[in-house]
Specification:
The protein is an alpha+beta fold. It has helices at residues 47-54, 61-68, 89-100; strands at residues 4-6, 38-40, 44-45, 77-78, 85-88. A hairpin with a 6-residue loop joins strand 4 and strand 5. The protein starts with a strand and ends in a 5-residue tail after the last helix.
Length: 105
């Protein structure tokens, strides 16, 4: 049976660049503060698997893709430079499908 875990949330206000007033208890995007999504741990994948899903030969190429493609899903867990980062596999798979089926293809 798949296990679920609760992710550690970061403050969405710090990186979204949106200005204006924020209602108490909500971030600037209208999400409830302090509520983290539950994730199926079987849906988490590391840079090696992300590289394989994207057709890249090396896990280190994923960091280049993160810089090059702003719409590539970001890791949901990132423990810092040189440490593990985990992505949600369904998000990466959807992104890869959308790139293959891009405009005019």
């Amino acid at each position: 049976m798949p296990r679920a875990c609760q992710l550690v949330c970061r403050d969405a206000d710090s990186d979204d660049g949106v200005t204006g007033s924020v209602s108490k208890g909500f971030d600037r995007r209208g999400r409830v503060r302090g509520v983290c999504p539950m994730v199926n741990t079987d849906d988490l994948c590391d840079a090696h698997e992300v590289a394989a899903l994207l057709g890249l030969s090396h896990a280190t190429s994923v960091s280049g893709y993160l810089r090059r493609y702003a719409d590539l899903p970001r890791p949901v867990i990132a423990l810092g430079r040189g440490r593990i980062a985990l992505w949600l596999r369904p998000d990466v798979e959807a992104w890869a499908r959308s790139r293959r089926a891009g405009p005019g293809r």
